[in-house]
């Protein structure tokens, strides 16, 4: 194949550099040897012994189908979900609600309800958005309506909508053997009119009449515990954001062919050994690579497909400069950064591939040359972040790794996937690395000597530098899948040498969950940096982890860990004393779904930080139940 000649030199150079590092950096030596640094000998840590045979997750009972096992709560949830979907279809046609026969959905003794609060209070209002919350006291029974009338009031704002979407997400169920069961669900109704996009979000506590698995449950009562209405005002018929992908990539011949095809398409055409993968966790980086003042885009791709560099033109169009720039590697690439590694004033390129790190120098006109590579022997790099941690005037690089190469899922051909042990607090992941920039494209692995090998066996997906304690040097937060995160505080001794200490536990930001991204900003406007971490909010996880038959033999600490794993994203406010306060639930920011990425950003230019969350995952058609 055409790309084999390109891969071979890279593999060779990685291997050569890796061998050279055995002399350059003792931190890459085998366990039990010593290194000499600053006239002091330091014993390197011993690698963990990882079983080579496939390792089971926790309990095979977790993987049994609910209908085949005594998971009565999940049987009920599936039946109730089908009823809620039918209710959603009714809501999608609001003008016919008064004629709907709802006898198949509601019980004979259905209790009158009010689904749309009468007293909505504006909590945010600008030229683009209006957000209203329920300001009503407890509703009096006299205000409640019949089921059809309550639905009619609920959909009144979207009667003229040309498009309506309705979603229910049930995250808690309780089975009552007396024939009455309950569910807790998030409800989202979105209507598109000519002038507005109206979104109504609520949390419904439903009581159901349900006798057996052969019967469809019927709603007895609905209690609305939360209600929010958001109105997006359209400017000349367009929303605040518009999808311009097609127009700006119109001059890129290969864009549609490569990026608009599904994973199944490429997985069926490329050999798995090239790293095509099915997980879709490849990132992008943005920077001005040709010095014209306009940001350009570099897209990382799975193995077998070329990475792409798109150069921005002054008219808003993009051109594909992947081949001409020398950056179209077909190695499996997880992430990349544009940054000035050699202090010559232009944006160089650092790429994290499954094999290791590639450092490329920019000549200032988007012509890139490989200057060096860095093998990460133990783990496949997943993410990279840069800062001048030692304050010597150049950028150093933190490499976050996911799984040990030896613990990859047996026979799947993918070195990124592994079995976490234990699932909710795994400590058998790959070791991250801190590469110190010693100028002239020389990088030294100083992970152990600098203190960053403490708690360094997690499954890292993201890291971010920030001087959270305002002492003049950058600290590092590391978000890990399957368990606890790290906050490495940068402490400098009297000689100015940096030494890192993991203070995540004492600072209150371990956030034991499925960490996938990190973002720093001053969320509350008090002058210090706060922290937002994206995890996974799982409706199924929230339901199952609270059912009695879940992990009957586990201790309470483990059960709490499993439940926390499904809670969702976290917002930590900096208290200014080295500690953080978890305000995630009060701030309403946990439900980001399967949240791969998150970012603080002022999207409406009002001077306050908003939060954008990228979520979802690969799924089959019609099987999007928990995303």
Q: Which residues sit in consecutive blocks of at least 5 with pLDDT less than 50?
A: 1-66, 407-415
How confident overall, as mean pLDDT? 82
> How many DSSP E strands?
30
Describe the largest sheet. Answer: 6 strands, antiparallel
Radius of gyration: 27 Å
Span of the ends, CA to CA = 37 Å
Q: What fraction of the residues are assigned to beta strands by DSSP?
A: 25-35%
Q: Determine the structural class based on helices, strands and strand pairing.
A: alpha+beta
- The dominant shape is globular
Strand order of the largest sheet: 3-4-8-7-6-5
Q: Fraction of residues in helices?
A: 10-25%
Compute the number of helices. 11
Characterization of the model:
The chain has 627 residues and is an alpha+beta fold. 15% of the residues lie in helices and 32% in strands. The chain has 11 helices and 30 strands. The strands form 8 sheets. The chain has a 6-stranded antiparallel β-sheet with strand order 3-4-8-7-6-5. The longest helix has 21 residues, at 4-24. The two termini are 37 Å apart. 39% of the residues are buried. The model is unreliable at 1-66 and 407-415 (pLDDT under 50).
Pick out its properties.
single chain, 627 residues, alpha+beta, 4-stranded antiparallel beta sheet, 11 helices, 30 strands, 32% strand, globular, disordered N terminus
